Amino acid sequence: MYEQATPDMGVGGAGRQAAGMDASTAGGNPAAMTRLDRSQMQAGFMGIYPDIKFDVESSTCGGNDGGNAGYFSPVPTLYYVHSVSPDLKLGLGVGSYFGLGLSYSNEWAGKYYVQSASFTTAAVNPTIGYKIAPWLSIGGGVNVVQGKLSERVAVNTLLEPDDGRLKYDASDVGYGYNLGVLFELSPQTRVGVTYLSQVNLEFKDDLRFKNLDGTLLGAALNASGLLDSQLKINANIPAQLSIGAYQALTDKLALVGTVNWQNWSKFGELEIAVADSNTVTADLNYRDTYHVGIGAYFRVADPWLLMVGFGYDTSPTSSSSDRSPILPLGAQFRYAAGVQYDWNRDFSVGVAYTLLDSGSAKVNRSGGPLKGDLEGEYDTNFIHAFNVNFLYRF
User: Fold this and answer.
1) If DSSP codes are grouped into helix, strand and coil, which group holds residue 169?
2) 121 with 97: CB under 8 angstroms?
3) Over the stretch 37-58, which tens digit does the pLDDT of each residue have?
4) How far, in Å, CA of 92 to CA of 128, rounded?
5) What's the DSSP call for residue 264?
6) 228 and 222 Cβ atoms separated by less than 8 Å
7) How many C-beta atoms surround the C-beta of residue 304 within 10 A?
8) Cα(79)–Cα(92) distance, integer angstroms
9) How far apart are alpha carbons 117 and 294 in whole angstroms?
């Protein structure tokens, strides 16, 4: 997720690696903290609301389109930069950069694939930045990430009139790091490069089945030792390499841009073990994604700063047979806008909005006799994000 409760959400996160305009650069590029002349604190609140609706073309299990699978999620953030000296800065970021959740109706056509699922994270990121030359700054930090995985799915009991249910809830703490470099080529031009490492999370929880007593499937699971056994899933939050640029054209207008790579192919390789048996790798056939984003800052008047941005991400899946209703992503388009108001020299407040179009995201899955076949597309597949942010300099 590029969306955070930060001012640069107004440009879709474009140029985050090079801008260095406020305390949120403690996470965006810790090297750019050296551009801040004073200590700063930036806090904000972001709301995310997915509008995701599946249009069923065919399903061997019947059911409806699932309604709107999205629900509102609040995401607070906090950034702090302490100015030790003009060349040395310490930073701290608290928030989330990965996660989403979906919840379909109980009797939707893909209920044997998923009924509800969420993968949420919260991260703490202490950082340091140092200017080693007038044109060069370096920075880095560590990431401590709390992750939670939750899933609900209907279980096909075949000849029985009622479905079973399966619940899974697990959490873990993972660790990673981020690195950054800032090149200040001129007072008007700067380029930043950042790397965000992969974070491994190992989820463990008992498989909790319901409504399987007296069924053939329940008897088979019990005989095999899988009923109420423990499921282990090793998942990887993707690594990311980004390059961003900031170019001031006039004292009122600046253009920003970003290109990056994310290692989604590694995210698609899940290590799974049931009942302490040998671990197997489930390859979801994900591929790495690439992003390009552009944006503009315009100082329309002394207290007002307007922002606009656009971004494009390639799809992590290459075909409808690989795409799952758990993560219905196709190629993504971002449209962003925002405004900041400088209340005085020390305090600023802003708002921003992003519309994320995740594409039609066609699905064509063959799940055998238990899951059934599911074909259709997400003809509505949007994510709305808005934020309110505050900046205090001291």
Assistant:
1) strand
2) yes
3) 999 999 999 999 999 999 998 8
4) 9
5) H
6) no
7) 12
8) 6
9) 32
